[in-house]
User: Fold these one by one.
Assistant:
Number 1:
Amino acid sequence: MTQLTRLRDEMRQRGLDALWVSRPANVRYLTGFTSPADGKVLVTQDRATLYTDARYTVQAAEESALPQFIARPPATYEHASADVGRGVVGFEADHLTVAGLEELEAAWPDATLKAAPGLVEELRSCKDDREIEAIRAAQALADRVYAEVRPMIRAGVREADIALEIEQRLRRAGATNAFDVIVASGPRGAMPHGTASDRVMQDGELVTIDMGACLNGYNSDMTRTVAIGTPTDEMRRVYGAVLEAEEAAVQAVKPGARAADLDALARGILERHGLAEAFAHSLGHGVGLMVHEAPGLRGTSEDVLKPGMLVTIEPGAYLPGVGGVRIEDLVLVTEDGYEVLSQAVKETV
Ligand SMILES: CSCC[C@H](N)C(=O)N[C@@H](C)C(=O)N[C@@H](C)C(=O)O
């Protein structure tokens, strides 16, 4: 079943005659258009139109099989009003701004606008073979770059220089950073999102490296924590606890597993090591056209894993003033279990 066919089924079930798609990742997913921030899609039961402007006339025609209408608002809305009519039109309430909604209300006065968050995101959460191969390639590149840069992580080197090496190598390979590279050494390791700073790394420290490649629109995401020399006994104990939680959660990945249960499994292990308070974020998230997407692997999640989902498993422990550890793998949910896509070495510290 194509993506549009599945989307139309969902729309029927929710009583929608049309869906106005504004989130860039969703526009790209439905159209293949690689400048989706400047595109929108109107999907009805018998038509789907890509709207973009004249900067992209040639590009949109090359990239998308959907019919295109090249204009800017208000001409965009005037064209779409023929399909919208008096129907019920869903909008992406978790993306469209209040101003954007007001524009639609003014342009389509006869339509009923209805909040319809998460429709395309739900479809995107299970990847098809082409998407899985794209993410596999992004992760393989990230693994290669990590292996090349790992020997440069040593005392006397700035965090920023490690991030720069990673970014340069990704760019030379035709990719970009999926997000700003996190290089958090020593006490900075207590910041889960400690992007690389001017700090000079020192002997006896742990260093957290969190990096991803964005290749052909698809992202990877992986974290390793490494030691320079010999860290303190306390930090080695924390590393062991996080690794135990990470491995246990990865091994529990399978179709039917509840995301909240996986989060609880990892959290329970860290709690037994006295680190419950130190695990300051969720266990993981889906990865695809966005770095963070469905499913959410957190305590409040109602998501259940299905084959084709690609998720991170990334417990961490963060001790303010002392340091931190995170270990993250990118994991594919298969028909009967899981496959770990991230292959970068996890070291004994
Ligand atoms: C700014 S993108 C950072 C990507 C990083 N690998 C990552 O996912 N970090 C997690 C700690 C994170 O941000 N988790 C989210 C889903 C959360 O717990 O809310």
Note: The chain has two domains: 3-124, 129-340.
Number 2:
Amino acid sequence: MSAKEPSALNAFERQVEWIMFRFRWIFVILFLLPASLIFDSYHFVRNYFIYKLQSAPRAHGRKVARIKRQVREWNESGKKTKMCTARSGWSTMSFRFPLYKKNMTQINTDQLVDILEIDEKALTVRVEPMVTMGQITRFLLPLGYTLPIVPELDDLTVGGMINGCGVEASGRKYGMFQHICVAYELVMADGSLVTAKKFKNPSTQEETDMHTLFFGIPWSHGTLGFLVSATLRIIPCRPFVKLTYYPTKTLEEMEATLREEAENRENEFVEGLLFSKDRGVVMRGRFSDGPIDNTGKINSIGRWYKKWFYTHVEDLTKTGKVHTEFIPLREYYHRHSKSIFWELKEIVPFGNNVVFRWLLGWMCPPKISLLKLTTPPTLRKLYDRKHVLQDMLVPLDRLNETINVFHKEVEVYPIWLCPFNQPSCPGMVRQRSGKSIMYVDVGVYGITEKKKIMTHTKGFQMMYADTYMTRSEFWEMFDSSIYDWLRTKYQCTQAFPDVYDKVCKAARY
Ligand SMILES: Cc1cc2nc3c(=O)[nH]c(=O)nc-3n(C[C@H](O)[C@H](O)[C@H](O)COP(=O)(O)OP(=O)(O)OC[C@H]3O[C@@H](n4cnc5c(N)ncnc54)[C@H](O)[C@@H]3O)c2cc1C
Ligand SMILES: NC(=O)C1=CN([C@@H]2O[C@H](COP(=O)(O)OP(=O)(O)OC[C@H]3O[C@@H](n4cnc5c(N)ncnc54)[C@H](OP(=O)(O)O)[C@@H]3O)[C@@H](O)[C@H]2O)C=CC1
Ligand SMILES: CC(C)=CCC[C@@H](C)[C@H]1CC[C@H]2C3=C(CC[C@]12C)[C@@]1(C)CC[C@H](O)C[C@@H]1CC3
């Protein structure tokens, strides 16, 4: 456990800080909302034309050749500094800017933004790593398919979900994002192109190597090679999610209901929200064709004038009754995008007001990357002191204990609870029980009124969040056996930093 001391501020500085925080919405409404709309419209049109022209598969070879050439040039020029991707710090989905990029050779992977091919026989889709979740759902759902796991913010990338990690409400059935991956195409430190994948019975040394590499990539944060494409599983889907809300009145009831629903094999999605230590709701979802059996109405939560999803859920829990409704699938997947979970209320405090929603809701949300880019240093300091951003992945039977720790230390609500299945397979996140265990992601995001203490309970911490762990604490949490071996075998130690040196506090500001 390590404490973060608030820096001493005088009264004037506090006032400036408060004004910037309270009136940021003016800048957001006047500049960021229109800029976000332009940005998204450009990408929408661009992707539409690329799809219609079918040019992405041909262009992929050229893009990969360029990356191989950059890595070979790095080798030939004497390997002076280590390598990382050239993705700019402001466009990534974490609060922090990566400091490490400044002193490294940046390999340009920014053009890898296209969906390459869908194989309806093998039920897979092959995509480049900068493809976003919003892009994938827009492409797959009209074809009647979906990824088994769709992390909910539109701008999360496939590369980030694989090299970092991705969880979502369907994790109870499919695990983490890495568990829906079939193969990774990688440019390694020597400039070679390899395909890492799972083999049922690896029979040659090469197959064994590629099998081991496949398990090493998730959570490695680009420290084993550059991902240039990924083959992902797809599943058939239906146009709606039939969502049932079960209000809970105690933490014990929450844990029991979450477990019961997570273990029910008929459920596709299970998610919990805690609005206070005791009061919460468990939501279970199943694919559906809509309200044909008169068990509920359609609620198009994604429409611009609709309430933010979590406030809708909170209103339902206040009735104390079980409620069922049908949500269009894509709107369900991106249900937390419009309100950026519950972060937008700090930025546009009246963003959920009915008048605002009808007038300007269609431009929401502002892009997270633009918010990040335009956070002034004064506000960053305030966020440093008062804002909590933590995701702890813990076995479900430790939920109660974990909530108690977060309640005592930061008392930030709502808390996001996302159960997911953690198989016993090799990799950095490792449980060695020999069987699958139900874990839960406990996500805490928001402003705390308490003195901020960063605590890490037993489990795995998602590394996009703020981490104050020492190197030894880090490697106590994660399993390094395959990782270290792969780093040596593929000459990564000279080519890429150690994963801890990318995610520790000193590497980000
Ligand atoms: C000095 C040294 C030499 C090494 N030499 C080799 C080598 O020659 N060849 C090589 O491949 N690795 C080699 N390794 C890597 C080695 O595989 C791992 O470091 C080690 O086995 C990890 O142990 P573990 O208990 O975490 O994984 P284990 O559970 O032992 O897993 C090892 C391998 O078994 C397979 N496996 C296990 N569970 C599952 C599962 N649930 N689903 C699918 N696959 C599974 C995977 O291939 C995995 O890579 C070496 C490591 C070291 C330190
Ligand atoms: N529901 C969820 O699961 C959510 C998850 N998140 C977190 O957000 C992060 C994803 O953010 P996103 O902006 O998409 O990704 P980032 O750009 O932040 O990438 C995350 C890491 O993956 C590495 N990486 C990305 N692409 C490649 C590639 N092609 N080759 C090699 N390494 C690569 C990056 O390396 P480098 O440093 O070299 O750029 C970086 O270390 C994840 O880490 C995730 O944990 C956030 C919100 C929700
Ligand atoms: C569901 C999981 C696993 C994680 C959700 C994480 C998000 C809540 C955060 C990821 C990036 C964060 C940023 C902000 C809020 C919280 C996230 C969206 C800001 C928008 C907060 C305001 C700052 O000025 C900019 C931040 C950018 C990153």
Note: The first strand starts at residue 2 and ends at 3.
Number 3:
Amino acid sequence: MQISKWKRIVIKVGSALIAPHGNGCSSHYLLSIAQFIVRCREQNIEVVLVSSGSIAAGSHLFPGEVKNIATKKAMAAAGQTEMMATWDKLFDFPTAQILLTHADLKDRERYTSVRETLFSLLEYGLLPIVNENDTIVTDKLKVGDNDNLSAMIATAADADALIICSDIDGLYTANPQVDKKAKLIPQVAEINDEIYAMAGGVTSSVGTGGMKTKIQAAKKAVSHGITTYIVNGFTEQSFNTLLQGGNPGTVFLPEQNPLKENIHWMTHTASAQGEVVIDCNSSPELADDPSKLKSEEIVSVNGEFAIGDTVLLTNNDGTKVAKAEVNYSSCLLSYLSEQTLDVEAQENLTTKGPIISDKNIAILNKSE
Ligand SMILES: Nc1ncnc2c1ncn2[C@@H]1O[C@H](COP(=O)(O)OP(=O)(O)O)[C@@H](O)[C@H]1O
Ligand SMILES: N[C@@H](CCC(=O)OP(=O)(O)O)C(=O)O
């Protein structure tokens, strides 16, 4: 989808662009990005910015070896204000700070709240600037990289395009800093294992994600129908080419049958609070429609979850079948799976309808 058809876009800017030397923010490489944002808004394209750089910006205030994760979180707390100020002074319209963790996105109620805030900010003409809330993240709570965060935000915002600004022109057949014969791939129609295999990890001294997380992000976005670009954020030409409707780097084409928003959220953002092991071998229809699950087909229940939580449904051979909203607690399902109940007793216990919601359910591909 070219710029003329865009109504809303998300732009992700990595640490290397905003804090190129890892000792405070510099607007040097941000001017062309800011100009691109201004040009998009002039064409009535709403923009959401996902910006890294708080840790890189704050690190110089904490000299010496990074002692522990608490120091890194303190760097983020210190650098976040500088990162926001660096962006804010480039625009003559207001910016707004949104700090999130994965906990805010994997909880459906909080995810919906984030969407509402984003839409309200855009309605009033502000530029939302999103970053992970590194000050409070833990391994359990974090997204971990802003490439994947930007894809989750693009989905939440129903964006038409996601532009990931990197320190390289796009996805190459291999890491060009390692393989001098590597070639730029202008277009990716399908993200498969071969594409993932091309992507190496982090190379910049301040980056977190590397190319792997950019491919993961592209997969999340294209499966929601969002055209995704990896472009070189260091060159103004990248943005001039985009403004002319061209592709300056690698474009990942949107999937033809994008997932509905709630199914996409369940597939790519929701985290399972527990696991229900089911017996698809004796009930093969369950593999295609686990919402028909009956208590006697439950093999075991792992973890603790409440009504309305997301659970992972796995076959008793370990294959992941689906992620879905569960209508009963782990306690009741454990009881039901261990009992041999007659139909009447079952009906008395399962008055809330099907065990698994037939609305919020995402059948998983084998590779997920
Ligand atoms: N197949 C690949 N194509 C392009 N770059 C790759 C590939 N594999 C690994 N890389 C490395 O990924 C880097 C970009 O990711 P990263 O280091 O996180 O920087 P940034 O977040 O600023 O984009 C590139 O500079 C490159 O060294
Ligand atoms: N939330 C972190 C950014 C983490 C991250 O993904 O960084 P990068 O790989 O430079 O985009 C920060 O602000 O430093």
Note: Residues 279 and 317 are 9 Å apart (CA to CA).
